[in-house]
Amino acid sequence: MANHKSAIKRIRANEAKRDLNRYQHKSARTVVKAIRKAENKGEAQGLLSKAFSMLDKLAKKNIIHKNKAGNLKSSLKKHVDSLA
């Protein structure tokens, strides 16, 4: 256990940040899954801009790597374009 007051506060702050990061990452994955399961192009197109925004924010905050965000965005765009 930490002995210094600042170390105890840092532990609390890190736990709070970890929870927020996990929530945002999980939310983005849920939107990505919804796009992949979408049957029609209109529905997927509506979710695409939301997913792009979420992935960009995750990459900016280093929750995911910027290349992973780019790869996900590219594959999602290809998938939506292939829908009838």
Keywords:
84 residues, mainly alpha, Methane Monooxygenase Hydroxylase, Chain G, domain 1, elongated
Secondary structure tally: strands: 0
> N- to C-terminal separation?
58 Å
Uncertain spans: none
**Which value, in Å, is the CA radius of gyration?**
17 Å
General shape: elongated
**Helix coverage percent:** over 70%
Number of helical elements: 3
The percent range for strand residues is under 5%
Q: What is the residue-mean pLDDT, rounded to a whole number?
A: 95
Order of helices and strands: HHH
Count of the domains = 1
What does this structure look like?
With 84 residues, this protein is mainly α. The protein is built from 3 helices and no strands. α1 packs antiparallel against α2 (41-60) and α2 runs antiparallel to α3.
Q: How is the secondary structure organized here?
A:
Layout: H1 5-37, H2 41-60, H3 66-82
Overview in brief:
By secondary structure, this protein is an all-alpha fold.
